[in-house]
Structures are given as structure tokens and as C-alpha cells.
Write a structure and sequence with these properties.
By secondary structure, the protein is of the alpha+beta class. It contains 12 helices and 27 strands. About 10% of the residues have low confidence.
């Protein structure tokens, strides 16, 4: 049935009246409704950001770099937005690093970077002291033929490289101008997740750009940002403050205007910020910069310890709570600072210089950037008791560095020799006595004692944990402590009484570590 226009109008009016009577409609406010207290808090935060930015910006610089590169190369992306003091290009090295991070499985060909027989790029940095030293990233100035620094007031100066440290991605350059105020150094060890931070720099060439955010995480030691650098030291602060190409080398500051990090990298699926940025903690970067300024290079210290993660399984075998915090001493280099201080295999490190031992990488970073020749306090657990010793770090070249990094043992195959063999099927390995003949064949010293792994079953607990045929087992955990093993029968007896097995195994080269094995579940 058709309805005329008058009938439809009546229906609309009636419906509107019904909705209104039920309180469904709401009056549109004339202005945004924010409580006075909310407005006060918002203004206070804005005022804080403004005060920090105004205080910090005079200490932040833009760094322009020129490099000579081969002709016939191209950059496989669209041109970046042109900044007021930039030619629109990003640093070729920064491009390469970023592409590797974004596309770890992709192939990056050398001819993809640079262009036209020369290359220009822009990065950031900050005034470090009153002598004209400026701190930035190594990848900003690496391979530069010319470096120009522009200060906040437009003044420019040519800079020279004082020194670089690719392992931490820190560099120090120097200009003659000394009238600019150094940025105050904070303490990155005190930074907390959730703290407000500001990032200042020259993203895409737009100098003196300030962005805000919070600290998203600390102690990012396995981000893979410096994977291309041998022996790299990663320990990043993660932030959601916008960091883009060109921000590299600029400061990450707290609300006191103190630098707590050097902006270094981003994780993103595009060319720009996706809310995951990384900054080098100033505690580490400052130590590196101080060494570069003083000596022109960085010399790292080592304890001479093979560091291992303290897993719940290892904790249980050593008689500790499964949640015990610390780092396991898997090996001690003979004659090293740790050995001289009395540190032993199986000890659990709990702190160094009053800083808790959180994980292997962070501990290694902390020790490596500490002063060589200075005495430090090292705390650890042994047999359930707390102990404390004084250690004096030695230069890395004096200590066996490969032990500090916990390199995986190299494979060594046993050859035929007359010795009784024992099968430990629950753990997936066979062992045999170490006879003088077998020891000589495998390359162990004449004084070596233990049992040799003659076979490892594929897919077994031993295989999954990295044990290999030809390795020598010298110790096993019994009664909550590591004890020497001198015969295959002795080892078999210890294994038969355990659901989990903690043992120490090494190669003929002397490279070893502690392993934990759990029995194969019965089917």
C-alpha cells in the first residue's frame, strides 16, 4: 500500500518524539569538555616538554657527510622528503643497515648504494664537552671524506674524526668551535620502562626536530642491529619516540634534559618510524667516548670467564631455586683476572660493581666498558653461600676472548681404540674411557682426565643441547656441586640416578661449557 508524503512525515515526527522522550538524543556540547584538573595536567606536561626542548636544542647538531662511492649505483627507494638543509638523500650506509634490518633474508648488492660518483647524507649528534667534541653514531661518519657540523644557530664548522668504535656504533668527532654548551649526561641504568623521553635530531634533514614518547624496554641485547660487526656489543634502550633516518647519532633525553641514550636504529617495515626505535645507553656510550677522547681508541676489559645463562635446570642441579637470578660461570681462563680472584667453574655471578648480573650479554657489555686496571667488586654464589672478591680487569688481547663469548665447541671425532663403552640411551649418548692412546688420537693433553663421548644419537637430549662425539666430559653435578669424573662407570652411575644431568664437556682445543640434559620421556 502506498503512503503519501504527509503520512511519511507523520511517521518521522512520531519516531523522533519517541526517541527524544526516552532520552536517546543528547545535546551537542558547545565546546570540548575537559576538566580543569585534566587541562592543568596536560599543560604541565606540555610545558615540561617545551622546557626540555629549549634547554637541549642548543647542544644538538646536524651532521652532513660526503662520501666518494663508485658510479653507476642506485638507491632502490623513492627520494626522501627534502629538508631545509638537506639534499633529500639518506646516508648510503644507513640505508644499507636499515635494509638489512628490514629484510634480513634479502640479498643486498654493493652497487645498490650511493650514486653519481659521490654521496651526501645527514645525521645528528650532540656537544659532548667544552673542547669541541661531538658524539654521534659510527655509521653516520664511517667512511666520510668530509664532515660538516651545523649548530642550532646556523653556524657551521668542518669536523674531523677523533675515533670510532664499530662494535658499539659510537663515534667522536671534533670541531674548533667551543662556545656551545655540552649536553648534560644522565644515568641510563636508572631509566625505567614508562619514563617519558624526547628524541632530538635531523630526521630527513629537518634539523632541531623534537619527538616524544616513552621508554618501551631496556636491555635489548639481541636486536641484531650490529650483527654485521664482529664482536659487537648490543645493549639498547627501546623507545616509541619517533626516530627516522637522519635521527641517528642524536640524543635521547629524559625530562631533566639529560642525555640517556644515542638514537641509533629503527625496526620498521617501511622507510620511517613504526614506533620501535633503539638508542645506545649513555652509560656505555659515554665510557666509549671518554676512551676515544683520551686514547683515540677503545680498549675493552675482560674477566676471563666463559659465561652461560643460568637456566632453571642448571639452578636445580646446583641446589638453587629455579628462579635464581644470575649468570653461570661455565669456564675460567687460566691466569685470567677471574682465576686470580678465585672464581671457579660452577659459581653463579650475581653482581659486578654493585650492578646486578641480569643476562650474559648485558654483563659482558658492562664488564667490557669498565676501566682496565681498576679494582671492582664481584659477587657470586658458591655451594649456596654468597661470596665477594675483588677483581682487576685485563685488556681483551691479554685474555682468551673466545672463552668470554662462550663460543660453541668445535667438533672432534674419536677414532677406533680399545676401550670399554657405555650406552646412556636415556640421554642419547655413548661414552668410553679416556685411554692414553685415545687421548693422543683426539689431541687431548697427556694429563687430561674424564670420559670421551663416542656417539651422540640424532634427535636425543645430548644432540639437542650441542654435545658431539669426540668431546671430553670432565665433571658432573653430584650432591649439588660439580665433581670430577675419572671413569665411564663412574659417569654411568651418576647418570642412572638423575632425571636431569649437569655436566662439563670440552673439545681438545680446550673450549668447553656446561650442559644440562633431561632424560627422554618414556613412551
Amino acid at each position: 500500500m502506498k503512503r503519501n508524503a504527509l503520512a511519511w512525515a507523520a511517521i518521522v515526527i512520531s519516531t523522533a518524539a519517541l526517541i527524544s522522550s526516552r532520552g536517546v538524543t543528547r545535546a551537542v556540547p558547545a565546546a570540548l569538555q575537559i576538566s580543569p584538573e585534566g587541562q592543568k595536567q596536560a599543560r604541565a606536561l606540555g610545558d615540561a616538554f617545551n622546557a626540555v626542548a629549549e634547554f637541549v636544542k642548543p647542544s644538538v647538531v646536524q651532521i652532513s657527510v660526503k662520501r666518494k662511492v663508485k658510479a653507476g649505483v642506485r638507491i632502490p627507494f623513492n627520494r626522501t622528503p627534502r629538508g631545509p638543509n638537506d639534499n633529500g638523500n639518506i646516508l648510503p650506509k644507513e640505508f644499507e643497515d636499515m635494509l638489512k634490518r628490514l629484510h634480513p633474508d634479502g640479498q643486498l648488492e654493493p652497487q645498490q648504494f650511493g650514486g653519481g660518483g659521490g654521496s651526501e647524507g645527514t645525521g645528528s649528534g650532540f656537544v659532548y664537552d667544552e673542547k669541541g667534541h661531538i658524539v654521534t653514531n659510527n655509521h653516520v661518519v664511517e667512511g666520510a671524506d668530509e664532515i660538516k657540523v651545523q649548530f642550532y644557530d646556523g653556524e657551521e664548522a668542518i669536523a674531523k674524526v677523533v675515533g670510532t668504535d664499530p662494535q658499539s656504533d659510537v663515534a667522536v668527532i671534533k670541531v674548533d668551535a667551543t662556545q656551545y654548551r655540552p649536553l648534560l649526561k644522565g644515568k641510563s641504568a636508572s631509566a625505567r620502562v614508562g619514563d617519558w623521553v624526547l628524541a632530538i635530531g635531523s630526521p630527513f634533514g629537518f634539523d632541531q626536530t623534537v619527538t616524544s614518547g616513552i621508554i618501551s624496554a631496556v636491555g635489548r641485547t639481541s636486536a641484531g642491529i650490529l650483527d654485521r660487526v664482529a664482536g659487537a656489543y648490543e645493549d639498547f634502550i627501546q623507545t616509541d619516540a619517533a626516530i627516522n633516518p637522519g635521527n641517528s647519532g642524536g640524543p635521547l633525553v629524559d625530562l631533566e634534559g639529560k642525555v640517556i641514550g644515542i638514537n641509533s636504529a629503527i625496526a620498521t617495515s617501511s622507510r620511517s618510524n613504526s614506533g620501535v626505535g633503539f638508542a645506545i645507553p649513555i652509560d656505555m656510550a659515554g665510557n666509549v667516548a671518554d676512551q676515544i677522547i683520551k686514547n683515540g681508541k677503545v680498549t675493552r676489559g675482560l674477566l676471563g670467564i666463559g659465561l652461560q645463562a643460568l637456566t632453571p635446570a642448571i639452578s636445580r642441579q646446583l641446589g638453587y631455586d629455579a628462579k635464581q637470578k644470575g649468570i653461570l660461570v661455565g669456564e675460567v681462563v687460566e691466569g685470567s683476572p677471574a682465576a686470580k680472584a678465585g672464581v671457579q667453574q660452577g659459581d653463579v655471578l650475581t653482581s659486578f660493581n654493585s650492578t646486578p648480573a641480569v643476562n650474559v650479554q648485558a654483563f659482558r657489555n658492562m664488564v667490557s666498558t669498565s676501566e682496565i686496571g681498576k679494582e671492582f667488586t664481584l659477587n657470586f654464589l658458591r655451594d649456596g653461600k654468597e661470596k665477594s672478591v675483588q677483581v682487576v680487569l685485563a685488556p681483551a688481547e691479554v685474555v682468551t676472548a673466545k672463552m668470554e663469548r662462550g663460543d660453541r665447541p668445535k667438533r672432534a671425532e674419536p677414532r677406533e681404540a680399545e676401550a670399554e663403552k657405555f650406552e646412556l640411551s636415556d640421554f642419547g649418548l655413548d661414552v668410553q674411557e679416556l685411554t692414553p692412546e685415545l687421548g693422543k688420537q683426539l689431541g687431548f693433553s697427556a694429563t687430561a682426565k674424564g670420559v670421551v663421548i663416542s656417539d651422540v644419537k640424532a634427535g636425543s637430549p645430548a644432540d639437542a643441547n650441542g654435545l658431539e662425539a669426540g668431546m671430553l666430559i670432565t665433571k658432573v653435578a653430584r650432591d649439588k656441586k660439580l665433581s670430577p669424573i675419572t671413569s665411564a662407570k663412574q659417569f654411568q652411575d651418576a647418570a642412572s640416578k638423575s632425571e636431569e644431568l649437569l655436566l662439563y664437556a670440552q673439545t681438545p682445543q680446550g673450549v668447553g661449557r656446561l650442559f644440562t640434559l633431561a632424560k627422554t620421556a618414556a613412551k
